[in-house]
Structures are given as C-alpha cells and as structure tokens.
Design goal:
The complex is a heterodimer of chains A (135) and B (107).
Chain A (H helix, E strand, L loop, with lengths): L20 H4 L7 H35 L4 H33 L9 H22 L1
Chain B lengths: L7 H30 L4 H34 L8 H23 L1
Classes of the chains: A mainly alpha (135), B mainly alpha (107).
Amino acid sequence: MGISIASVSAPTQHRDRRWPRRVYGAGSEPDPRFTFANERTFLAWIRTGLGFLAAGVAIAAVAGWTDRLGLEIRLASAVLVICGLACGIGAFRRWMANERAMRLNEPLPSSPLLLVVTAIVVGVGIVALIIVGFG
Amino acid sequence: MTFGPWDPGLQNERTGLAWQRTMLAGLTCSLLVSRLLAPFSLTLAVMIGLFALLCTAGLGYVAIRRFRLNSMAIHREEALGDGKANALISMLVVITAMAALLYISVA
C-alpha cells in the first residue's frame, strides 16, 4: 500500500504561528516521517560540527603539551573549528531549505556544504600526513 | 484513524534519541573546551562549564517536551513542532566554536 504526502497531510485547525515563517508560511504539512527524518539529518550535522570542534581543540591541546603551538598547528585547529562553525550554521540553513522544499512538494535542494567540508578534511589530513612524515 | 504502513511512535522516538545523542555530544565538547581553557582563565572555564550544564539541562527539557508534543500531534493528526529548538542548538554550536577559537588564539 503506497502512502502519499497528501494522504497524511494534517492541516492545523487554528492559525499556524510556528517559526521560522519562511518555512511554515509556505505550502502544506508534509508526511511526518519526512519531517522527522529532516530533523534527524539536522541533528547529525550538528553532531558532525561538534566533532570538528572537539578535533580542532584536541589538536591544539595535545600539541601544547610539549611545546608552544606553531603556526601550522594553530592553522589546522582553526580550520577544523571553522568547519564546525560552518556545520552548525549550515545545518540550520539546510534544515530550513529541506523543510520548505518538502512543504512545497519540490525536489530537495543541494548544498555545497558536504563537498566543502570533505575537501577541508582531506586537505587537513594531507597536511597532517606531510607534517608527521617530514616534520 | 489510520496512520499508513508505519508506526508513528518509532519515528518520534528515533528523533528523540537523536536529540539525546546530540545533547551528550554538545556537553562533552563544551566541557572539553572548558577544561582546556582552565589553565588560562579559571573564571572563564567555570563560566563555560556552568553554561554548558545549564544548556544541556534546558535542551533536555526542550527535547522531552518536543517528544511529548510531537507524539500528541501525530495521534491527533495535527502539525508537528517548529524550528525554535533547532535554531537554539545551532546557536550553541556557534558559541562553543567561538570559545574554541578563543582557546586556539590564547593557547
């Protein structure tokens, strides 16, 4: 038995005051499963961001045990923390865009965040490998 | 009332558990930053630690409330919760990142 978005749409009986209006002011209620899935994806991005933050701080802390932090360590830490920051902000932006698209029954939008974050992780990894190998 | 070929409770429960995992990750990360800041400024470290504990308690309350409201909304076939909690948790990540950048700059 198939299930369509329209079949489980649940229009509210009273005025919808949910925030942000950019999301909830458009379209109709999607299938609750998709809304929950979108929320879990948002939370997964938040956890990824927290992982970046922890990694950035840990690199600086471990390097600081033996010596004063060099420029490359500070740079690597800052890049990872900025990645975490981007994940935190990007998570919310993606959640909004996806929820809005689902409400309007449009295709989910793409985002450069995944590509940028992957590229930065690979970049930091390569630099770390060079430092460990030749430093 | 028909829900279709899925159990409405499990979707909400999975999302509730995702909130709990995120809260734990946030608390761990904040306390790590707080601990690492301690040698540089004990006051700042204690403030960040207390702030993290308060935020986790607040988010725990928000997550439980959200779970209950969503559960009722599903069974009454009403609309689910909004994005305020999402904005709050994003803001906390931004604050933690600022503290982390501060640590990296003074370490």
